[in-house]
Design goal:
Chains A, B: GO terms for molecular function: DNA-binding transcription factor activity; transcription cis-regulatory region binding. Chains A, B: Keywords: DNA-binding, Plasmid, Transcription, Transcription regulation. Chains A, B: This is Transcriptional regulator. Chains A, B: It holds the Pfam family Peripla_BP_3. The structure is a homodimer. Chain A is elongated, with a radius of gyration of 25 Å. Chain A is an alpha/beta fold. Chain A has three domains: about 45 residues, no CATH class; about 130 residues, Rossmann fold (3-Layer(aba) Sandwich); about 140 residues, Response regulator (Rossmann fold). Chain A has twelve helices and twelve strands. Chains A and B meet through helix 4, helix 5, strand 2, helix 6 and helix 7 of A and helix 4, helix 5, strand 2, helix 6 and helix 7 of B.
Chain lengths: ~350, ~350
């Protein structure tokens, strides 16, 4: 029932009676051919459903219009949110995002980089797994392809766009100290630099507020199963006796697990008089406004991070990158909700 | 500092002193060349970091080893979980998954299909947006490429692997009716067939239990922002007076919003004597065990759905598909937690 679709550029050229060179110009930049020709080609594309083979074209170019995106795991909403914004921006800019997630596995991260290299992507936005990453494979890739690191860096030679952990942790520690008992810090497992930066910022902020810092290290069989890490850590603390009435979690997913364990133990969470415990997080996870109680947290500026990362990468690709800052750290905003 | 990497198959052939045909055989199937040759090639690959251009090779074949995956939005954990399982299975099978998410936008779904077509994918696993999908573009794509629909279908000519909504809704309705007051059903906005199937199953199950069904329709500016849909609907119900003491939500994300609004209103959720309200969901969202209280729900069998969908698609691709079932409906499991 379907009309036969032209398979090759030749067939399409014949189908619409437009020369190959003109077609190539059109696919390079539709604005570069006569309006009438453009309308004719677009009509034929619509009518036949012909799809020029983008890679076949890309292979004949120095550089493709495709951009690789690599994040540790799309099941982590932080990365899912970031990827969504990056893809929408890149499409707006006329680039073609190709997202690969290694699902937390170093060997798949290495394989993903190899795939992007074999696809001759014009550049890549990479949130590395972190300490588990194959540093050699990453260095080889970033040495040959324009790259910007997201969220956390791994190599000083590659620009990084991420959250300003120093500013954001300082802000929420200051708030918690002013509004109640000083916070105990629940840390993530040490998967990347960012986790170390946040706990260091917590310690500095506590000292600046004249309080002794107390960091409780999170751990678990799967360091990316953060709700479970928080849940298990909270159960252990409840058994040993809580180290404080205010808990600051390194991120919201830890906080969800902490709140779940506290709720099961019959504790009331919030900043009211009748409440037993304050819990705060970091990131503004999409579900943090719907937790019970809703979660006080630091909102990472996904939009700004995505905008800056794309702008920097596209400048690097087009050779117009005059920015020599190795790090772009985006400040986060304090979001006051019911939990603290 | 980096050693120059061979750019072409010719250069790599020279670098390791292995003929082009042998190299092609190796990249087709490493087991098809002599063990010593294989070791030599693998050592050179490791040493030089050479990446054969997979697409350049694929273009010269009838069929590529790459498989497209299209899901409405990776920010929805249901799809993020499913994609993760699909990708891991396909990689195991020696295929190369290429995931594209239209982020809930019909025009990006259409563009994504065009992209996959231009990449000559060997097949695709597609969870269509639903009623917003461009049916013509989908029919054109599925008419030319082996496809299996996931989660919800849109075209009877394409096999579907999804949850058995009739079985799963029936099971949780039976449980709720036996263990307390009959459930009122909170529906999602009507985005796809699956939502209609679930509410119909609810009505049938209620009648089978001798109760009058009551469906409360969910709605919102963004039908994919399901927590907000549930939250707003619950606030409205609390203002008008609750239609019942047991609420069955069409999925867990709705339930999170419902629980958040109920918690803010000071209602106690659970199946105990002191509790005001029972809330149940559907899907077993990764966070449903960490909500406060933890959520009673129907666990969709992600693993089985992913396994069946991949097996069916790979059979279609290899021409060994002797299965004429147009639908594979996978039963879900009842997960009893604290909320109902």
């Amino acid at each position: 029932m379907e009309k036969a679709v032209p398979r090759t550029m030749e067939e399409f050229s014949t189908a619409c009676g437009v020369s190959r060179p003109t077609l190539s110009k059109f696919f390079e930049d539709p604005g570069s051919v006569k309006k009438s020709t453009r309308r004719l080609i677009e009509a034929k594309l619509e009518e036949t459903g012909f799809q020029p083979n983008l890679y076949a074209r890309n292979l004949n170019r120095k550089q493709t219009r495709s951009i690789g995106i690599v994040v540790p795991a799309i099941t982590d909403p932080f990365y899912a949110q970031l990827v969504t914004r990056l893809e929408l921006i890149l499409r707006e800019e006329g680039y073609w995002p190709l997202m690969i997630s290694p699902h937390g596995r170093p060997e798949l991260e290495r394989e993903g980089l190899a795939t992007l290299q074999s696809l001759r992507v014009g550049g890549a936005l990479i949130a590395p797994l972190g300490y588990d990453s194959d540093a050699t494979a990453l260095a080889r890739f970033t040495g040959q392809t324009p790259c910007v690191f997201l969220d956390n860096g791994i190599d000083e030679n590659v620009p990084l766009v991420g959250n300003d952990n120093r500013q954001s942790i300082r802000m929420i520690v200051d708030y918690l100290c002013r509004s109640g008992t000083p916070p105990v810090y629940i840390n993530t497992p040490p998967v990347n630099r960012s986790s170390g930066q946040r706990s260091a910022s917590y310690e500095a902020a506590m000292q600046a507020n004249g309080h002794a810092p107390l960091v409780i290290e999170g751990s678990g069989p799967d360091p990316w199963d953060l709700e479970k890490v928080g849940y298990d850590r909270m159960q252990a603390m409840l058994a040993e006796g809580l180290p404080g009435q205010t808990l600051l979690c390194a991120n919201d997913r830890l906080a969800f697990g902490v709140i779940a364990a506290a709720h099961e133990a019959g504790l009331k969470i919030g900043h009211g008089d009748g409440d037993d415990l304050r819990v705060a997080g970091h990131d503004d996870h999409p579900l943090s406004r719907y937790s019970a109680p809703s979660l006080t947290t630091m909102a990472q500026d996904y939009d700004e991070m995505a905008r800056r990362a794309c702008a920097r990468l596209l400048a690097m690709i087009s050779g117009t990158d005059d920015d020599d800052a190795q790090q772009v750290l985006v400040p986060a905003k304090l979001v006051l909700r019911a939990s603290a």
